[in-house]
Amino acid sequence: xxxxxxxxxxxxxxxxxxxxxxxxxxxxxxxxxxxxxxxxxxxxxxxxxxxxxxxxxxxxxxxxxxxxxxxxxxxxxxxxxxxxxxxxxxxxxxxxxxxxxxxxxxxxxxxxxxxxxxxxxxxxxxxxxxxxxxxxxxxxxxxxxxxxxxxxxxxxxxxxxxxxxxxxxxxxxxxxxxxxxxxxxxxxxxxxxxxxxxxxxxxxxxxxxxxxxxxxxxxxxxxxxxxxxxxxxxxxxxxxxxxxxxxxxxxxxxxxxxxxxxxxxxxxxxxxxxxxxxxxxxxxxxxxxxxxxxxxxxxxxxxxxxxxxxxxxxxxxxxxxxxxxxxxxxxxxxxxxxxxxxxxxxxxxxxxxxxxxxxxxxxxxxxxxxxxxxxxxxxxxxxxxxxxxxxxxxxxxxxxxxxxxxxxxxxxxxxxxxxxxxxxxxxxxxxxxxxxxxxxxxxxxxxxxxxxxxxxxxxxxxxxxxxxxx
Length: 470
Hints:
- It is built from 20 helices and 16 strands.
- The chain is α/β, with parallel strands linked by helices.
- It has 4 domains: 2-132, Response regulator (Rossmann fold, 3-Layer(aba) Sandwich), CATH 3.40.50; 168-332, Rossmann fold, CATH 3.40.50.300; 336-409, Helicase, Ruva Protein, domain 3 (Orthogonal Bundle); 433-469, Arc Repressor Mutant, subunit A.
- The strands form 5 sheets. A 5-stranded parallel beta sheet has the order 2-1-3-4-5, with helices on both faces. A 5-stranded parallel beta sheet has the order 7-10-13-6-14. The protein has a two-stranded antiparallel ribbon with strand order 8-9.
- A hairpin with an 8-residue loop joins strand 11 and strand 12.
- Helix 12 (271-283) crosses helix 14 (320-326) and helix 19 (447-454) crosses helix 20 (458-469).
């Protein structure tokens, strides 16, 4: 390939040029954005490899300038910088960069990117009528190829499973999460409806751009019996209670030492434990159950809920002081219906994932199907969309998602493939043990969902399970 190498650092530029030439590439160097732009008037390139931080004009300025030029052949642009900054990467990719690297540049990573650029350029050259076809694609399909690259790049920087970010609102949420990552002492509260992706955002806060190997420990505050919650969170000493491990047991606080404790569904934590959790946040120490010695802790606390905290406080179910202490850092994730730009992108992301898993061939979404997906209100949010795409990949075959594949599954009254409604079901007879077992099986073992399906309180379900086990 013919590569335009742009870097104001002569030594770094010389080293990279030498390596690229060893790989058989033709390299033209430039020491500034203006110099690079002048060179592109006389030569064509398959790749522009540029530093971001340069005097006067940046690598991102170069992207916009090249996009404004009527070039006979449009090169791919890869940027690199010495600053590990997720927002900078996002800005670069949204400007149109093919990829992004951080210094010191890893040669194996650079080689991999060069291979992908070469493959991408070959596709362009072999499709002369690409522009004509492009005009007939839907608004999402026109962006889909570039957005895939954005998501792959984001995953590498954030250190988490590949996720879908296609709207300004979610870019803002991710930027907030990255900012909170820089201060481990600050508790963060994430609020949003069920299924919007609160745990993923919690992991971005934890991992940041550093691919952290520190522990991320989660605890679902509704999935543990209130009688066992304290020992699960704080651990217990030897002989603390009958039936415990003889030598005692470490709790989630110990397991999360140096890393992050993620308290999911925090609004439902037992009232009697809230003061103890507040002490952990404020004093950075705790007692194990049955213990007399204070244990110091060094953890980041992230909490999440889909409930109305103000209402819980008014009902006396949650301490106001704990709420405000958790809310020092605060993120609200908007529901999917308020960020329609995400819907088609997420649908294709999930469709391809499950198609690959099941050996199916789905690769695209028909414009009419996209229109129907975007117009639906998605009360179950991203989880509902994900489950629908999994169902489609299981039930249907084809290369393109059509409206007929899923339209009967969409209901204007209730979410499809989502969590049971919060309203309790009225029953004409007492709940039997068989009912409980059937509900648990239907809800995949999730006790909160099972209690809602049965129409009984969660604590009642825990009590019945304890009785059944004894």
